[in-house]
Amino acid sequence: MAHTCIHWFRKGLRLHDNPALMAALRDCKELYPVFILDPYIYNNTLVGINRWRFLIGCLKDLDCSLRKLNSRLFVVRGKPEEVFPKLFEKWKVTKLTYEYDTEPYSLSRDKTVTTLAKEHGVEVVYKISHTIHDMDRIIEENNGKAPLTYNRFRTILKTIGNPKKPIPAPTIEETKDVKTPCSENHDKNDGIPTLEDLGHDTTTLGEEKFPGGEQEALRRLDENIARKARTGLPFIDAIMTQLRQEGWIHHLARHAVACFLTRGDLWINWEEGQKVFEYLLLDGDWALNAGNWQWLSASAFFHQYFRVYSPVAFGKKTDKNGDYIKKYLPLLKKFPAQYIYEPWKAPRSVQQAAGCIVGKDYPQPIVQHEVISKKNIQRMKLAYAKRSADSAESPSKKQGVKRKAKSVIDMLQKKDKKE
C-alpha cells in the first residue's frame, strides 16, 4: 500500500539519525512533515526566551533541510488530540510516524493520539532514537524496576548489547517518488513562528521574569541567582550569568551551582533548581535535568553527601586567574587574581583601584561557605540516619511494597518548620 504519511517532529528536529522519518518514507506516496506548537508548552512548562529562540532556530534549520529535498515543514498550533483528526481528514492520511518519548506527559499524549489515529484508520509507527537505548527494555531486564545505581545500569547495558549506529539523512534520490506538498496551498498559520507569534516582546529580551504562581523559593532564586546573579560568590554568579545569557554552561559548572543551591550552602529543595534550569537551559531535558538535580543534591542515586563543591576552590583548579569570572562579571575584571574568587577579602585600597566596592557595587557573600557547608553535612548525616531507621522499621518494606522516594532535604525542611 502506498501511504499518505505525516511524520510528527517533536524533539528530534533533524533528518539524520531519524529512523521514524525513514519509516515514514517507506511505501509512501505523499509526506507531510509536521511540528505542533502544543499549548501545554506554554501553560505547564517553564520556557525562557533563549529556549524559545533556540526552538525557532531549530525549526527554521529543519525547514531549510527539508526544502533541499523539495519538501517543507508544516508548523501547526493547537492540542495534538484536536489537531490530528483534522489533518487526518484534510490530507487523507493513512500513516503517522514519530520518535518515542518517555516523559509522562508525552506518553499520555501519544496514547491519546494513537487511539485517535486507529479510529481514523491511520497506521502508527514509532521508533526509539531520542535515547540511545530502549528505556522500557532496560527496566524489563532489571525485573521490572528502574536501576538505581550506575554500576547496575552498566551491567544491564552489557546484557542488551551495543545500540544501533546512527543512520544518515534521506537523500533526494530516496524522496524523488514521494510527493511533498509545498506551502502555497495550505493554511496561513502553517509556517515557522516568530518570537512575536509566541507572545514575546523582543524589545525586552533578557528582562522577562519567571511565570507567576511559583513558590517563594523560586522567587528568591530568580532574585538572587537567576536574574541578578548576586550571591556575592563570583564563581557562582559568573556561572548563572552565562546560563542566563547563553542558555548553556559546562557540566562541572552545573555541578557547582546545583551543590551550592542544595546540600552545599543554600539548603533549598532541588526541585526549585530544576525549575530554574528548565527555564534557562537550551538543551534542557526533563528526565536528565531532574535526575541530575537529585544526584547533585544527594537526594537520590548519589549518596556521598560529604563531598561538597567549594564555590571558591573548585573554580581555581582550572582557572587560577579567574578569566571566566572576568568575562561574565566585568565589574570584577580589575581585581587581582588572588582576590577574584573572594573579592570581599581584598583590602579597601584594592577594591577602590578595581572600581568595585564589595557591599556597595558587588554584594557580600550570601553565606559563609566554610561554616554553612559543615552545618549542612551534619544535617545530611542526620537525614540519612533517620531515613535508614524509618526504612528498617517500615512494615511496607518488609512486605515488598514500593515506597515513594522522598528528598532528604525536603524531609529536613519540614523538620525545621516544625521546630
TrEMBL record:
What's the record's note on cofactor binding?
Binds 1 FAD per subunit.
Keyword set includes Flavoprotein: yes
Q: Which parts of the sequence bind FAD?
A: D283, G284, D285
A single GO molecular-function term is:
FAD binding
On whether Zinc-finger is a keyword of this UniProt record, the answer is: no
- Mark out the compositionally biased spans (Basic and acidic residues): 173-190
Q: Which cofactor does it need?
A: FAD
Q: Give all residue intervals belonging to the Photolyase/cryptochrome alpha/beta domain.
A: 3-132
The text of the family note is: Belongs to the DNA photolyase class-1 family.
User: What is the protein's given name?
Assistant: Photolyase/cryptochrome alpha/beta domain-containing protein
